[in-house]
Amino acid sequence: MALLEVRDLRKTYGDRVVLDDVDLVVEPHDVVCLIGSSGSGKSTLLRCLDLLEDVDDGTIVLEGRDVTDPFVDRREVRERLGMVFQAYNLFPHLSVLDNVTLAPRKVHGVRRAEAEQQAHELLDRFGLAEHATKYPDRLSGGQQQRVALVRALATRPALLLLDEITAALDPELVGEVLTIVRDLAAAGTTMVIATHEMAFARDVATRVCFLDGGRILEQGPPDQLFTHPTEERTRQFLRRVLPEG
């Protein structure tokens, strides 16, 4: 059974169609990278998957359960998902440790001592152990984004959703965050990632989806999509974003 299956997903804002009959299947341990121009629907798709946006039509099935059912408990669904945004979205009044342990304690009912032990282990794993007592404004952008990743992982999600997580970073900080995501992919973490980092997508993805005008126009293994795209629109996009030669 697929971990996630999206069927005929449609989302509009007024008269503007943002997602148009999107189909997507994510198997366990897949790393699916969503590429495309700004406004193509990548971030909206992730927000729909996390139930932060209502959909107008179609279904989202997570672990065999239709989570677009109007009677579904959204909080319960989000317990199975981890979402990381480009703007970090850390709570500024909480320390790093408290940011990481908040959801395990308040949502999952984990005892404080256990939640803090798990948090310290994750922070150490991602080179953040010395920052546990600091507040977000004392960290660099790259460190804050790594904390956001740790916070998402602390709930042990079935699926990790990453929305342009390097977009707000200075160029020299991008690499340290992408290294973490590469390590997660190597460890078998199932992810759907919206990204403008083409070399990263080619290196990490099991499948790449090119979105254009709210549709997944083309998808396939990275070597196939980047080297021999079948759609002219995909070829135009890649000519713009890939280095020549």
UniProtKB/TrEMBL annotation:
<dbReference type="GO" id="GO:0005524">
    <property type="term" value="F:ATP binding"/>
</dbReference>
<dbReference type="Pfam" id="PF00005">
    <property type="entry name" value="ABC_tran"/>
</dbReference>
<feature type="domain" description="ABC transporter">
    <location>
        <begin position="4"/>
        <end position="238"/>
    </location>
</feature>
<keyword id="KW-0813">Transport</keyword>
<keyword id="KW-0547">Nucleotide-binding</keyword>
<keyword id="KW-1003">Cell membrane</keyword>
<keyword id="KW-0472">Membrane</keyword>
<comment type="similarity">
    <text>Belongs to the ABC transporter superfamily.</text>
</comment>
<dbReference type="InterPro" id="IPR027417">
    <property type="entry name" value="P-loop_NTPase"/>
</dbReference>
<keyword id="KW-0029">Amino-acid transport</keyword>
<dbReference type="InterPro" id="IPR003439">
    <property type="entry name" value="ABC_transporter-like_ATP-bd"/>
</dbReference>
<keyword id="KW-0067">ATP-binding</keyword>
<dbReference type="InterPro" id="IPR030679">
    <property type="entry name" value="ABC_ATPase_HisP-typ"/>
</dbReference>
<dbReference type="InterPro" id="IPR003593">
    <property type="entry name" value="AAA+_ATPase"/>
</dbReference>
<dbReference type="InterPro" id="IPR050086">
    <property type="entry name" value="MetN_ABC_transporter-like"/>
</dbReference>
<protein>
    <submittedName>
        <fullName>Amino acid ABC transporter ATP-binding protein</fullName>
    </submittedName>
</protein>
<dbReference type="InterPro" id="IPR017871">
    <property type="entry name" value="ABC_transporter-like_CS"/>
</dbReference>
